[in-house]
Amino acid sequence: MSLPLVQCAVSGGHPLEPLSAAEVAAAVAILRRGGKITPTTRFVSVSLHEPAKALVHAFPGANRPPRKAFAVLFDNASNACHEAVVSIDGHEVESWRPIPGVQPTMTVDEQVECEAAVLASAEFRAALVRHTGIDDTRLVMVDIWSAGNYGSEEDRTRRLARPLCFLRSDPTENGYARPIEGIRPVVDLNTMKVIRVEEHAQCPLPPGACNYAADRVGDQRRDIKPLEITQPEGPSFIVEGYQVAWQNWKFVIGFNAREGLTLHHLRHRDGDEDRSILYRASLTEMVVPYGDPGETQRRKNAFDVGEYGMGMCANSLELGCDCLGLIRYFDAHLTTSRGEPLLVKNAICMHEEDFGILWKHTDRRLGKPEVRRSRRLVVSSVSTVENYEYGFFWYLYQDGNIQFEVKLTGVLSLGAAPPGETPPWGALVADQVYAPNHQHFFNVRLDVDLDGSDNSVQQIDVVPGDAGADNPFGNAFLTRATTLATESASLANLSLESARSWKIVNPGRLNAVGQPVGYRFLPGDNCIPFAAPQAWWRKRAGFVDHHVWVTPFHPEERFAAGDYPNQSSGGDGLVRWTAADRPIASTDVVFWYTFGHTHLPRPEDYPVMPAAYIGFLLKPSGFFTMNPANDVPPSPPKVAASGGSCCH
Ligand SMILES: [Cu+2]
């Protein structure tokens, strides 16, 4: 079975496919030969330097654009960051640019080395004895935690981490059950040394263990019968490299150390035309601010994309993927911070899911129901950022819908509470185990290309009809579409009062009823930040100030909190770019969406948290002439468990 995803003789795949292992290795070797890499240089990331849009659109008619890598490098000895563009085909470093005064994303190697540094610190061991009476660091877990920026000189000038520490009672216990509340070591990641141990009020370790691992839970329920998904003729998707075709959809899967999973060049077949919808979709940032002002908790606000690297923290699903059906995996090719190849085997999972009813109608006069089952294509990856897990799921549907869903799971960030005390800023989840209130704010960048790049965005508000002679019963309501002309006009929050949504349109292409073709953006759950506007983390996360931002496309505007949020003093990213108030009508637009989950912890989130879901939907709205799923055939009848016949 083969369907030419690349309709030309040019080999090597789509221009937006991620770097292969060989390309990553070649880029590292070229950088080394360039003479700028020292023994103290860390490779923060090496990823595809995406070719200009015009070159991608010219493909496959024109040759595949030259392959290039974008690298972020950090030298621990000089505390200096550089960005490099490497021509892989040309075997040369094309550009080498110093980025002064920034701290790039912490690498996975630094997570490991930081833990070792804390455990080796005599000052830390002495504090451990004072707070817990224990001298054995073999059971201590040290989670790196970014240092943030609270206005001090060292926040600006040193590469720092301020870890959280936990104590297991045995080597395989859930270590998060016993937070060491009163100790916060501060680590200089350049020297990889503990520079001080901040000690706060002593607080006893919580008394109980609480486990979730299968071999530690004890009795498990026994009344679950097998549920098998079989696809005897194989999956309905076709894959070439990182290009995918599934029913009417075509797209390219991307992956990098910073953003993790990305989608590119998403098109939908309509008649004999592949119509473009999204050029690039990515998670650009997320921040988890905690709401407890106590001295051990108030600096907790992790920027999991810019500080930790969502791709760097990706799971290898070889070891734990619970999708049903026929699964196609994709690997991620990254580097260690020393430039060695880092393979995340099976970083991305793709499979099909049955999704209940797609549509149904029974014509009672004919006595004949017509029903179709919905099937969706799922492309996902999961990242573990210390205690927490984030699953990122893109769903493509047969009716043209595109959905993004984040699944939040893993272990709460826990603290210890003194016996008999219930802290006001969160909830007790077990005896003396405390979880502060917090929020998770995500920002997704949707570079929409609806039938080409010349797009506009409308804000759609539903409003009641005016009282008057043409509305005598007062039942009227209608939509008010405001075409957003400038960046400042685009900044908006959700509005329940007007059922606000947004619509991306192409004013240059009209549909069958004479309207510009469009896709609606439908928000899901959301919230606003509860921290004060002057809170330190909010200075660095200006993207939480509005749910929606629309900008004109600029290839270097990729991250909502700026390129280097780690220890930043703020003001970068969307806040800075949109201050220019550029025009956004009838141009290549980028739609940025910030969505937050307010997490008020509960005992049921402990010891491991059942997944919470948040996301959004893109829905064709006048993009197609009619229901694009009208041609989905019925499924064959099935036999019911009772032995009778049952349709769908
Ligand atoms: Cu949470």
Characterization of this structure:
The chain is mainly β and 648 residues long. It is 10% helix and 40% strand. A 10-stranded antiparallel beta sheet has the order 16-17-18-19-20-31-28-27-25-26. Strands 10, 11, 12, 13, 14, 15, 24, 29 and 30 form a 9-stranded antiparallel beta sheet that branches. It has a 4-stranded antiparallel beta sheet with strand order 1-2-3-4. A hairpin with a 4-residue loop joins strand 2 and strand 3. The longest helix is centred in the N-terminal third of the chain and has 13 residues, at 21-33. It is globular and about 80 Å long. The relative contact order is 0.12. The model is unreliable at 6-11 and 643-648 (pLDDT under 50). Copper (II) ion binds next to strand 24. Residues 408, 438, 440, 599 line the site of copper (II) ion.
Quick gist of this model?
The protein is mainly β and 648 residues long.
Shape: globular
Question: Which molecules other than protein and nucleic acid are bound?
Answer: copper (II) ion
Biggest sheet: strands, sense, closure? 10 strands, antiparallel
CA gyration radius, whole angstroms: 26 Å
Lateral arrangement of strands in the main beta sheet: 16-17-18-19-20-31-28-27-25-26
- Percentage beta strand: 35-45%
Mean pLDDT: 95
* DSSP summary, beta strand count: 33
Q: Portion of residues in helices?
A: under 10%
Low-confidence stretches: 6-11, 643-648
Termini Cα gap: 28 Å
Structural class: mainly beta
**Tally of helical segments:** 8
